[in-house]
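QA checklist item 7 of 12: single-chain prediction sanity check.
[x] sequence parsed
[x] length recorded as 532
[x] structure emitted
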Amino acid sequence: MNNQSNFTTKVAAIVALGGLLMGFDASVISGVNEFVEIDFDLTKAELGFSVGSLTFVAAVAMLFSGAVSDRFGRKIVLKACAIIFTISAVGSALAPNFTLFLAFRMLGGIGVGASLILAPMYIAEIAPPAIRGRMVSFNQLNIVIGLSLAFFTNYLILSLGDSDASWVKALGIDQHNWRWMLGLEALPAVLYFFGLYLVPKSPRWLAMKGREEEALVVMKLFRPEKEALEDMKSIKEAISKEQEKEKTPVTELFKPAFRTVLLIGLVIGILQQIIGINAVFFYAPMVFKQAGGGTDAAFLQAVIIGVVNIIFTLVAMKYIDKFGRKSLLKIGVSGVALFLFLIGFGFNQAQYQFDRSKFDEVVAQVQDETAKQAYLEIGEKLAVIEGVSFDNDDIAYKGKLAEILGEEEARKYESDLITSAIEVNSTLILISIIGFIASFAISLGPVMWVLFSELFPLSIKAIAISFVGFVNSMVSAGVQSVFPWELATIGSAMTFFIFGVLAVLGLIFILLKVPETKGKSLEELEAILIKK
């Protein structure tokens, strides 16, 4: 690997740390939501909004981040994101009520939305075509590392909370575990801010601002001089053509010339979220509890899917420039559909029958005598349904719990009561979720952002990526917000069956409409995809 490739890799890795913060900020809520639901006495709708609100704001931020970065530069806006992440982490961790908790979480959405757009945009603008797919995939790798890091730190803090260590009690980790989960994000956010001082300005942005000599100097840092001169010539020609036109309005995206690339971008952007990937990530412990895992087991299983996500994202990075974007999409989305149907099948076969002996095993692990007495009282109340079988997914059983115990008490003890009743092939569900994550990680996860960075010509790139990113995030926010309601209303099985059907429809579109973009310069792709 030559010096330019080394430098490109180093810079891409630093910029992609914005993806790590985005992944951490978005998924740390997976360990927090069950605690804030109880502490703030939230309804399922409020719980869903507390998870989805960050993504709603991120979607709006995407609309403006491209234009703002065109004016001030990619680097400056990314540094602002690092500051926002820090404030959001500390503020949400210290929030005394649900209103302030929401406010600081939504503030973090600005950083999520902007970094999600600008990090891959910047990397695509510095990377040579031969390694662009792998370099842009650094951002997705960092997103999944952030997701996994949040799962791990959530599990670590939960485990520390059960410890008798004096320092754990002194720091309040046992009493305020979810606040520590949120606050830890401030550490990588501060590191990201200072790391960006090592990153040069985007050469394509410098050229857009008329600073061509400076742009060439920067471009030579990332590729040999001859290649840098050729790329600068292509960039100047593209900018010159753009300057002959009036400033591109949003309506330009809907012109016939851009119809094909916009359609592909929108469908892939919607597909990435409509299959429920973030519902699984952001509610991972909740999903595993539906399959009969207790709190500790559910958090540990969430860590496992985080590790799987990292491994298969690395596989995608290795092969995305060798096999191509479309090939990975075809393989991955086929797997996504298959495993979603298997998850739905596993939940559909579940039986629920309250078993007092299983419940007593749970109670035996409770150390606090007051809490143990409360559990024993719950067991006595549920004696009336011992031996009664419920097979309508998990809806009928949870409905009966609420009827006997009341909504608040049933919600508080739901995890242990499901563990004490469910008969399900949990191995099938766990393997299927791992397969679903792996299939997503080698396809829609990294490939979507690579395609976004390649499909759109320079003249509309910022606004186009902002627009399709906005749609992607709005769909994600919607899925996250309604997921708790879906589990409570139509059940786990039907929820995952619906996701599977949507994945099949997306696969058909990929086979028919998505082109292969590997190995082509951005200017070559513009000539192929844009109708003159």
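[x] summary fact logged: The domain at 3-199+245-348+428-529 is CATH 1.20.1250.20 (Growth Hormone; Chain: A;).
[ ] second reviewer sign-off
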